[in-house]
Amino acid sequence: MLYEFEKFESWRLIHGHGFKLGLVYDNFVGNSLIVMYSGFDDMGAAKCVFDEIFRPCVVSWTVLICGYGKIGDIYLARLNFDEAPVKDRGIWGAMISGYVQNNCFKEGLELFRLMQLSGIRPDEGIFVSILCACGNLGSLEIGKWVHKYVEKLEIRVGVKLGTALVDMYSKCGCLDLAKEVFDGMPQRDVICWNTMISGYGVNGDGESAVRLFYEMEKSGVRPDNVTFVSLFTACSYSDMAQEGLKLLCIMCDVYNIEPKTEHYGCIIDLLSRARLVEEANAIVQRMPILGSTSEEAIVWRALLSACCSYGRVDLAETVAEKLVALERHSGAYVLLSNAYAAVGRHDEARKTRKVMKSRGVEKTPGCSSVEIDGVVHEFIAGETSHLRMDEIYEVLGVVKKHFDSLQFDLSFIRAQTGVT
Questions:
Q1: Spans of the PPR repeats (predicted)?
Q2: Which neighbouring-strand residues pair with 367?
Q3: pLDDT of amino acid 395
Q4: What is the Cα–Cα distance from 45 to 33, expressed in whole angstroms?
Q5: Is there a contact between 128 and 158 (Cβ–Cβ < 8 Å)?
Q6: Please, what is the Cα angle at 226 between 212 and 210, to 5 degrees?
Q7: Of 58, 66, 110, nearest to 84 (Cα)?
Q8: pLDDT-derived band at 379, boundaries 50, 70, 90
Q9: What are phi and psi of 240, to 5 degrees?
């Protein structure tokens, strides 16, 4: 931190000397200063430098938009994007990337469509951002179209673009297409291997994930922290507890990688899914002090979730107290309340919800999205702002009637046959 502060102060001195000599009005010097201040997240100073430039060029606008995107200020990024007198591919790419980096995936896709209408030809970086948006939204059809567009433009599928395609297809559940792209890549780095391993894991194919890991070792690529997070997750989703613990030993003994928060969280989840809650609790109790309370809370939350899933209310109460002391988050209260309700202790469940409300802790509303005819629709729990909400509720009413009818039929059949 001291070194970073000294670097920052050195740059401020350079800025001061440049200002005295009248050099900051130059595009090259000004742009370098904007990049420097953006690197230190000081966008106030970056904007002051930008305003001092006599005639900002497209690079000036690009680095400014990138800076705002980096600190998460998408509003000011878009404001400056709209004000840019000339928009080249770099400016479009900076704004699209800013949206995607800040989880505004739908907005990123919409801006990509506007870019196409403007006649700008996308480059590899823009395609990587758009594929990331498609993967996170589950927009398979748009993702396939983007892939075909890449082929039409005859853009070479390098490591970054290939990894983005693998990630998109994996997140959309198309493992065969993801593996096809993966196998066709002439070069693969550790990120690419991790992405394919993770793809198998989140889609419930733990055996393929582990098999691919051993192929990765044979290819000479050294695994990193993320590799083992993906492997532990894969083993967890596929009920492969013993294989997961074996990989933990390989991580520690063979590659000398010290377990971090994410590793502990995955191992706790792995043991919990195998109903080894006591073993998971023992690991948490022996866990060294992690970097921050938020990191430690992640592990305790995983253990609390396990306790609640398997009716260990006694242990859940202790874990919840620890978690509440670490963070002000609704998750601990909701999980504990659900655990009480699951074992019929409804008074305690209601009391927990009341305590949560009295302390001003609000539950984060759920969010979901669906792709229909190439258009992504997003919904937040409790919202009524969608333009076709009346039609949606009408269809939900029909679905509910069918579901109620099905429930009645099942109850009747069980009553007649005695089969539960």
A1: 88-122, 189-223
A2: 380
A3: 76
A4: 9
A5: no
A6: 20
A7: 58
A8: low
A9: -115, 60
Q: Which residue has the higher pLDDT, 202 or 380?
A: 202
| pLDDT tens digits, 313-327 | 767 666 666 666 665
CA distance 371 to 136: 12
Report how far residue 159's alpha carbon sits from residue 244's, in angstroms, rounded to the nearest whole number: 28
Least Cα distance to 135 among 117, 98, 109 occurs for: 109
pLDDT tens digits, 356-368 = 555 544 555 556 6
Are 121 and 89 contacting, i.e. CB atoms less than 8 angstroms apart?
yes
Q: Is 203:233 a contact under the CB 8 Å cutoff?
A: no
Q: Is the pLDDT of residue 417 over 50?
A: no
Placement of tokens 């429930």 in the chain: 407
Q: How far apart are CA 118 and CA 114, in angstroms?
A: 6
- Paired with 389 in beta bridges are none
Measured CA to CA, the distance from residue 190 to residue 211 in angstroms comes to 16
Backbone angles phi, psi at 215, to 5 degrees: -65, -40
- Average pLDDT of the chain is 80
Predicted local distance difference test score (pLDDT) of residue 2: 34
Q: What residue type is 200 in one-letter code? A: Y
Within 8 A by CB and 6+ apart from 155, the residues are 123, 124, 127, 161
Distance CA 367, CA 380 (A): 4
pLDDT band of 390, cuts 50, 70, 90: confident
Query: Could you tell me the two tokens for 47?
Result: 């904007």
Asked if 69 and 93 count as a contact pair (C-beta separation under 8 A), the reply is no
Q: Can you say how many angstroms the Cα of residue 6 is from the centroid of all Cα atoms in its chain?
A: 33
Report the alpha-carbon distance of residue 196 to residue 129 in Å, rounded.
18
Quick one: tokens of 72?
A: 């998460």
Q: How far apart are CA 198 and CA 179, in angstroms?
A: 12
Residue 136, CB half-sphere, CA atoms under 13 Å: how many? 19
CA 389 – CA 393 distance, rounded (Å): 6
Share of residues in the chain with pLDDT > 70 (%):
69
The encoded tokens of residue 407 equal 């429930």
Q: What is the pLDDT of residues 223-266, one digit of tens each?
A: 999 999 999 999 988 989 899 999 999 999 999 998 888 888 88
Q: Which value, to the nearest 10 degrees, does the dihedral of the CA atoms of residues 93, 94, 97, 101 take?
A: 180
Contact 257, 251 (CB under 8 A): yes
Residue 332 is encoded by which pair of tokens? 């601990």
Q: Residue 273's Cα: distance from chain center in Å?
A: 22
